[in-house]
Known about the structure:
Shape: globular
Strand content: 25-35%
CATH architecture: Alpha-Beta Barrel
Order of helices and strands: EEEHEHEHEEEHEEEEHEHEHEH
Amino acid sequence: MKFRPCIDLHDGVVKQIVGSSLSDNPDKKIETNFVSKKPSEWFANLYKKDNLKGGHLIQLGKGNEDAAKRALQEWPGGIQVGGGINCDNALYWLENGAQALIVTSYVFHDGVIDEQRLKKISKLAGKNRLVLDLSCRKKGNDYYVVTNRWQNFTKEKVTRNLLDYLSKYCFEYLVHAVDLEGKCSGIETELIKILAKSSNIPVTYAGGISSKEDIEKIKIMGKGSIDFTVGSALDIFGGTKLKYKELVEKYG
């Protein structure tokens, strides 16, 4: 199990946002836990110095391209990029230093898997440079993949069958437990159990991690096979519950 760092961009600035508050509705307030005074490339340089490969940079909406590109070029081949990735811009991001592409909405189109798009972007990027983001929210007793900055439910449940099918086209999954994202309220244990039992390729979990105990639970439930990322609880993002240097030393 490894600590995987993150850079979340909103309006070109590194932020930590409560995931469930993201909306296209201008009248709905986005809940923000942290706004960095440091640029995106500062975080990329930090991760490079600590050799934390495979972190993810997520563009939350428009206006993030320049900041994303600066971070990727600070550490070429060290960071994955997501947010608005499709077949038209996939090569652009790879040429500008992305280690891999993170894709959700382009593949989970109109509420279901668009098989043609999935095959096309997997072939274009290469399976070993494609990460599928299965960030999800709970509805009833099941977890459903959500798209469009986590606002829209798809019809796709996070199950063994889904994970087995998609693993033919990508080398890794990134999974945010969206209902807990940014809340520092503890992890989504049932989701972690599903991922540990069902995925035959690497998984990085995010959402709600707020303590060393949460991380140890992920290690135990995931049998050491599920990596993790921490946002709002981390001291480099204004948090008070977990220290970046300690996570690097123990899980880097």
